[in-house]
């Protein structure tokens, strides 16, 4: 019989056959044909390994291996398989594949387990297409409304709603898929850290204590286009120059809050008309502020608003803002974190409590279900890149901890 860990590695390989990029990374954007093919392969793997598969109205895939008491609350593991453009081979998908393997291993160790065991694949986790993240997990936990499905659009003007409908789904019925507190006993998400701490310290496992909340803004800076040679410097309304000040303000304000592990990023800038001999008349920015301390995030956000007022006045430009999302940091379940720590101690696995700077599906599930996260190292902390790598030997301890914590939960009440 195939071991769970080998199943995990094989599932990563098979799913990553869809969306390969020329640089060696993966481009599997949510609700595209490559995403569809990867999802079909995943469902195929689930059927091969004894899972009953369901797909809900927003595209979340749920595979279940039933226990001796089907009415018992399931223990679930999950993550996502969509990627950013030219992304890595392990972000999200490793957690899904580890879930498949862990369920297989637990079922073999405890064939008479009472609780059903589930693997959940949340759709649309990455924000790169629509500017909104975690579509699937937000929809089933009440954090995304039908209006949101219509409001968020990609660069071609396609709304989340239309993308879901074109994918053969029924977003207008998303409420039917809402997760209730009675629906699961616990939820786990294993994920690469996406930062350098575990890799550089040599610690094998991070037990996530809290997940940073992203506050995201779309800014439009409206100046006035002019001839680059004929318009004097002191008469310009340069939208790009104003944008540059905003970018530096985000950096400075976030650095002032570094003690609270708050970070700020401007990851997207567009300039119009975008030609060499025209003073830019319009530009847009996408700003990401995140951390695990809500008051610290608020200080950066409020400080940025004041800076925008100053820049608007000093450069005689108009700055329009749209708050895309404004979340709260999420503290994960204390009992499950304690249990994971005990598991690591008992198995002599090096571990530490740590925050997550990146957002994950677990942060929305945690609002309804007791939830925990396991971090494993990625080489150099590189992620969201074709250079993303893991060392097989360094993900095995986190995988073993996942198997053991599920095993202890399914055997506790027998």
From TrEMBL:
NCBIfam families named among the record's database cross-references: hydantase, PRK09290.1-5
Residue sites binding Zn(2+) 1 per the record: 80, 91, 191
Name of the protein in question: Amidase, hydantoinase/carbamoylase family
Cofactor(s) listed: Zn(2+); Mn(2+)
PANTHER family to which the protein is assigned, alphabetical: ALLANTOATE DEIMINASE-RELATED
Co-factor binding comment: Binds 2 Zn(2+) ions per subunit.
Domain of life according to the entry: Bacteria
PROSITE patterns: ARGE_DAPE_CPG2_1
Sequence similarity: Belongs to the peptidase M20 family.
